[in-house]
Amino acid sequence: MSQLSTRHLLGIKDITETDIRLILDTAANFKEVINRPIKKVPSLRDITIANIFFENSTRTRLSFELAEKRLSADVVNFSSSNSSVKKGETLVDTVNNILAMKVDMVVMRHASPGAPHFLSRNITANIVNAGDGTHEHPTQALLDAFSMQEKLGDLTGKKIAIIGDILHSRVALSNIFCLQKLGAEVMVCGPITLLPKYISSLGVKVELDVKKALEWCDVANVLRIQLERQQIKYFPSLREYSLYYGINKKMLQALDKEIVIMHPGPINRGVELSSDAADSEHSIILHQVENGVAVRMAVLYLLAGIKG
Fold it and tell me: Most CB atoms closer than 10 Å: which of 29, 77, 101, 207?
């Protein structure tokens, strides 16, 4: 069996195109498994995985937990809100205490960019980054790419627009790295206040007009406005944002082609996407959720084969 070039999944920037294609191919096999009447395989029966979430999460945590259980791993869930972190315990001490219980792999979400990278230099377990601040969210990018491939086939030359709050989004950065490695063209679109100053240096097209972005693309990956990360006002109001950057079904029907609509969730309905667009035949949002389990199964399975 082919092997990943790394023993951690810290970010898409750190892995190769071969790694990405191996994960996506493995995920296709696991998608068949989770659609069988018996959805479990014994692949990770002797592995213990700790889900360590220092930030709130519903979708990602549940998706990882389900992936782990489908692989027959033993699962330990840790939430910082009711832990000794509140008493001043350091990140390394917290994780080392968990590892002392003979944990093999850590899935971690943390508010600080680079936290999983720091941890990977200090502990022996395999680490999967489930989101580090506004930096990266690698498994989301992989499940997005997997969902696009299912719909469009090979992504070489395909045009993908990432629309919305690029500045605060870890999904955007991971998607850009992943899609470029798979040969796609990438455009970012949003208010200029929500586009990072460095964005054009990543080799993406930049567009401020959402209608032009929709006319250009094969896929629109629409991002949530992350009000919880915004310390200042980046636009006058949600209503104004919706007026200029919200996507509705009428806009999609006015295009002279079919495009695919995606969203990493949770959706602010009526802000970045209207309900009639989110629930339309253009949307593959629920497929993304289903594919998330298969992709995370693939990542955990492949990393479990690589010990430090």
Answer: 207
Looking at residue 229, what is its pLDDT? 47
Residue 122, pLDDT score: 84
| Sequence-ordered list of residues with C-beta below 8 angstroms from that of 174, at least 6 positions apart, any chain | 11, 12, 136, 137, 138, 140, 141
Query: With the C-alpha atoms ordered 52, 74, 303, 221, is the resulting torsion angle positive or negative?
Result: negative
Q: How far apart are CA 172 and CA 181, in angstroms?
A: 14
Q: Which residues of 127-159 are buried (b: 16+ CB within 10 A; e: fewer)?
A: bbbbbbbbbbbbbbbbbbbbbbbeeeeebeebb
Among 2-6, 28-32, 99-103, which stretch is predicted with the lowest mean pLDDT? 99-103
Q: d(Cα 189, Cα 205) in Å, to the nearest integer? A: 9
Residues 6+ apart with CB under 8 A from 61: 51, 53, 77, 109, 130
Q: How far apart are CA 157 and CA 155, in angstroms?
A: 6
**Main-chain phi, psi angles of 97, to 5 degrees:** -65, -40
Phi, psi values for residue 214, rounded to 5°:
-65, -35
Query: How many CB atoms are closer than 10 A to CB 48?
Result: 18
Domains of the chain (ranges; CATH) run: 12-137+289-304 (3.40.50.1370), 138-284 (3.40.50.1370)
- Cα separation of 221 and 298, whole Å? 23
Report residue 232 as tokens: 């200042």
CA angle 126, 134, 132 (to 5 degrees): 20
Predicted model pTM: 0.94
Cis amide leading into 266 (omega within 30):
yes
